[in-house]
Amino acid sequence: MSKIDIGIGAKDRETIAEGLKCLLADSYTLYLQTHYFHWNVTGPLFRDLHLMFEEQYTELADAVDDIAERIRTLDVQAPGTYKAFAKLSSIEEVEEVPAAEKMVEILTQGHEQVVKTCRDVLKAAQGGDDESTIALVSDRMSVHEKTAWMLRAMSK
């Protein structure tokens, strides 16, 4: 492969990619949680939550691909193992099957955490004058802020 020359220095590309790796790990962990909850939700809100979680994990599946491809565009290898994601993610895994209301709370916190991770990546991208990453991360922030709002609206 030829040498990369996209107007972003190697050090900035590496810094931005490291932040994107954390965003990828958070997004993938949130994807897994959302899918897990989709499969296991029960109770009076079953249908609404089952369908909502499906919409959310489907959106997240596309997002992880976009984030990983941006890392590769910066000429850095994207992580792709559970072990790597566990090290990089700031979202804790859930092993038990919580009640539906707790699922909503956990996912709300997860989306809010992804927004915080996006803010960190955004700073690095702005510092490196990386408009493509800025656009990607800004779009991700909007999605996660709106999803967190919708989940909060489901709470009592």
Automatic annotation (TrEMBL):
Ferritin/DPS domain location: 19-154
CDD domains linked: DPS (cd01043)
Gene3D superfamilies in the cross-refs: 1.20.1260.10
InterPro entries associated with the record: DPS_DNA-bd, DPS_DNA-bd_CS, Ferritin-like, Ferritin-like_SF, Ferritin_DPS_dom
Pfam families in alphabetical order: Ferritin
Family: Belongs to the Dps family.
Protein name listed in UniProt: Dps family protein
Source species: Microbulbifer halophilus
